[in-house]
Amino acid sequence: MKLNANEVTLFLIGLAVMLLFARSFGELLKKFRQPIVIGEIIAGIILGPTIFGYIFPDIFHNLFVKSENIIVAHEGITTIAVVMLMLVSGLEIDLGTLLKQGKAAVTTSLMGVIFPFTIGFSIAYLFPHTLGINNEEMRLVFALFIGTALSITALPVVAKTLMDLNILKSEIGFLIIASAMMNDLIGWIIFSLILSNISAGTDNLPFLQVVIITFSFIIFFLVFGRKLFDKAISIIHKNMTFPGGVLNFVLISGFLGAAFTEYIGIHAIFGAFIIGISIGDSAQLKENTKEIIHQFVTNIFAPIFFVSIGLRVNFIDNFDFMLVTIFIVLAFIGKVVGCGLGARWGGLSKVDSLAVGFGMNSRGAMEIVLGILALQFGLIQEKVFVALVIMALVTSISSAPFMNIFIRRSVKFVSLNTLINKKLVLFTSAKSKDILLSQMVEKISEVSLISKSDLLKSIIQREELFPTGIQNFLAIPHAKFQIKRPVIAIAINEFELDFGASDDIGSKIFVMIVTPQSEHELQLKLLAEVASKFRNKAEIEKLLIETDRDKLIERIQNLS
Amino acid sequence: MFKKIGLAIAFSPSGINLLKQAAKMQLMFNAELYLIHVGKKESSDEEAIENMLIEAKVDRNNCSVIWKKGDPAKSIIKTCQELDLNLLIMGALEKEPALKYYIGSVARKIMRQVPCSLLILKAPVKDVKTYKIIGVQIDYSSLSEKSVRYSYELAVKENTEKLILIREFKVPGLTITVYDSGSIKETQETRNKWIDEESLKMEMFVNELNLTGIPIEKICLYGKAGWESTAYLKSIEADLFVLPAPKRKLEMFDRIFQHDLEYVIEDLPCDLLIIKN
Known about the structure:
The complex is a heterodimer. Chain A is mainly α. Helix content of chain A is about 70%, strand content about 5%. The relative contact order of chain A is 0.10. Chain B has helices at about 15-30, 45-55, 70-85, 105-115, 140-160, 180, 185-210, 225-235, 250-255, 260-265, and strands spanning about 5-10, 30-40, 65-70, 85-90, 95, 100, 115-120, 135, 160-170, 215-220, 240-245, 270-275. Helices cover about 40% and strands about 25% of the residues of chain B. At the A-B interface, helix 5, helix 6, helix 9, helix 10 and helix 14 of A face helix 6, helix 7 and helix 9 of B.
């Protein structure tokens, strides 16, 4: 079997069209602050039999389905794409992060699997026809699959959501990422066992043997393989060109791992995923190397894979409203309640636990990979697959707005902008340091019922230790105090006061920060944020002449 | 700071060098020194220790020799508890032929369970070592604050040339956002922004501690904590690395899925001072 010149032409045009659609819709979705992957999936649905193929059936047929050879070539390239996608997904999983995050991450990730899995499994087992079972004989495996499908979380979409909300680098961000990593690993292990059960006794090895080999493979690469890869990368860095040497090594290892798991009957992607985790853990594998690999895979191969999904299935013919609704409801209940409870048991507040629950609800790309494999293995019907894709899109798109509701109420995500209170913005004419501090503390005590004398004592004690003048007319008097939420007061003083600023200029703008005693890092974070915001002297001078309270607040909030 | 110092000593070739270093610390902090030896008390051994004490010029009035039997790690840990020591000193092992120094299984057990701070000497030199370059790992915790204060005090006494505060951090999941930005540049910009943010926090952290007298350098490293600092300290040939003890006891899992400290003790960059509460 060989592609003739005409087929090669059509195949290449097909790929070009897929990439063009993927990029266009990806960029469009990005403009709406949605993950690019969602645009790529939508591009596939539009390009496929659902819309473009329906309107222009001849063009669609010629490009993608007319020739058997082109179909095989497409399958080859999408297999490579999905293997690479799982390889890079594995690269980012750092199990040490999970241990570092401690109890909360363990309870969140475990509950994030157990709860949705139990719900999905029970409902699919008890009402298999409602959930669209394909083959009654496979009831148990079908139920196991639905359980797994509901318990998966998509790390890339989660990372993007956290980044957009500006909480990727935060305690809750770390917790969600660590839990999502563990979630993914457990989910894929369960799924690999389901696949081994389906393929057992056909051309492959017996089930028990596959399970033993699978676990040996996982344990070997997650425990010992990591050290070997670390050594190998160190040698490559010393002896080969960068980044070619490492890039090739990662791909060679990934392909070999994928080939092995395909051989034992649990699909190539699982091997690539485990090898990805094993290599990604190496401290020698620098961040920029990982980024180059990500860029290479996600700009070329991943779009082809995601677009190809839409080409295979007609989303209108297979749309079942009831089924879609059931999956969406189960998905929300499973993750939000499961992870929320896990986070709560791990010691988080109610608000933070809900933020974690919604954060973990993104299914994104991983759900779709899982679904397409199940479809290929004949485990689910096309209408179930369509429902899973829509559920993945809905959970991914809704994750950020839901999280935002709770994040804004969380004590852990305070910033200067969220803490500014109009009642605590003053215009003063104090002629001494003590008078100014006293006036600011008085206002704080009025608003937040803190004892004035105690707070003033703490502020002055801290001031005596080391003056809090920074530069550009700014001083940040501060103290830790027995309060639950931090408080900030701002004063613009008519006269310059000596707060020992490094530029020897007297201070005229004062940001008083009072933080809870238990939050060590919070005080530093707010101090750093204020110092950073007030860096531009020209901007500060504009603030100093502002007389309207609302306008002053707006100006401060707009400082970058 | 360290009023009661213990030294886990054996009759190894490096024993005398360890003792010299311990004697220096004893003098520096005007502390009581306890030599802890696990083994049978023979008269020849007693004589050997006495000779070592003379050679190391140890202040004998402030020094006791404790003889213990049984499992070395357990005996040393128990003795530290009984004597309520502030600091235990011990030596690292040398990995032949790579000239790498690491922590052996006994020392590892002691490190995990000892109730006091711990000074691990990488390769005790013949002449007493001066800590010219000291690195301190910080994470803004109260224990980290204590580590900085202790390091500062030590640096003042040692007339240290450089006291470097090291902040290491990594944001898991960041590289995967390349997928969405589609550009390494945007991810790199985010990373640089966070490094600036951390540098500013370090600045504030040092201000809060109000340490004046010796210049303090601050460096922010992005990457795996422990591994980055080890590589950095090796490159600048630092003499001592001070770090707060892990918040929880390290278990077997931490060796497999490496904890920050594991990267340091696997390939010691220099002497190591682990500060405990």
